[in-house]
Amino acid sequence: MFPIQRPRRLRRTEGLRGMVRETRLATDGFVYPMFVVPGSGVRTEIGSMPGIYQQSVDRFVEECREVEALGIPAVILFGIPETKDERGSEATSATGVVQRAIEGIRRAKLDLVVITDVCLCEYTSHGHCGVIEKGDVANDPSLVLLAAAALSHARAGADVVAPSDMMDGRVAAIRSMLDENSFQDVPILAYAAKYCSSFYGPFREAAQSAPQFGDRRSYQMDPANAREALREVALDLEEGADVVMVKPALPYLDVIRQVRERFDVPVGAYNVSGEYSMVKAAAANGWLDERRAVLEILTSIARAGADIVLTYHAKDVARWLKNC
């Protein structure tokens, strides 16, 4: 009457559990998001994101050295410009803050993959991801500016450009612009399924990018839709995307899984600011074990099918994995 099959046999010790573990976290799939601001000597902690900073280029490069030393292979850069206007002109400036940050990494000869977020929301005075015409975000005029921003990042030395705006056709516009200017080898990581999520709140403080009117529901995806995500991914791949990403990660693990099963390309997922801040707040109150919670969360994202995980936890996890 006793069981013949006993799954608990392989759970008895840490050694056994490790041998049969199906999903293994590794730093080589991590991307660490960073926020760059004008000036020098600036390192300002973001109130809603403990441990994450807005930094001037000099301080930013110092942290990049730490990131490299921890074995994290890549960073993604978000810039907060000195001035903003209706068209986000600083996004395309050769002397813009992201462009100078890329140059800083190159001068320091750091072995990091440099990914740049391509969007206008940090650069526009209204906080939207495109040009405003007649009170709405105009899709096609925005493509011209987004493509120009991507080109300026490539010229500064970016390894990968990552459009996050969710304008229709932006991957094709960027691919065409890069190819026409001899940057055909620069890949595009497309925020292909980016949802209009409540989990972006802390990021908007970090990037100073909250919309000054309305919201982004007319261009970011409806959280209720999964089939639409597959269509968005397919369109971005047809337009020339090399890597596709789902954002946010935790509420959309099912979407990550469907994308992984449908498309034979690298899949990324963004463990976004709100997901990070929830864990930090709960841990600060003693409501959960931060290390165990973070490792469980990131394992779930990898288990769902993400090859690449953008996460603010990257440095902590790299240290934990080294000390295992």
Question: What does it look like?
Answer:
The chain has 324 residues and is α/β, with parallel strands linked by helices. It has one domain: Alpha-Beta Barrel (TIM Barrel), CATH 3.20.20.70. The protein has helices at residues 14-19, 57-69, 97-107, 139-156, 170-180, 201-207, 227-239, 253-262, 273-284, 290-304, 314-322, and strands at residues 30-36, 43-46, 49-55, 74-79, 113-118, 131-133, 136-138, 160-163, 189-194, 243-247, 267-271, 308-311. Strands 1, 2, 3, 4, 5, 8, 9, 10, 11 and 12 form a ten-stranded mixed β-sheet that branches. Strands 6-7 form a two-stranded antiparallel sheet. Strand 2 and strand 3 form a beta hairpin. The longest helix is centred in the middle third of the chain and has 18 residues, at 139-156. The mean pLDDT is 96.
Count of helical stretches: 11
Query: Architecture, CATH level 2?
Result: Alpha-Beta Barrel
State the distance separating the first and last CA atoms.
Answer: 40 Å
Whole-number total of structural domains: 1
User: Based on helices, strands and strand pairing, what is the structural class?
Assistant: alpha/beta
The CATH superfamily is Aldolase class I
- Report the portion of residues in β strands: 15-25%
Mean pLDDT: 96
CATH-defined fold name: TIM Barrel
What Rg is obtained from the alpha carbons, in whole angstroms? 20 Å
> What proportion of the residues is helical, as a percent range?
25-40%
Low-pLDDT segments, ≥5 res: none
Shape category: globular
Largest sheet: 10 strands, mixed
State the name of the first-level CATH class. Alpha Beta
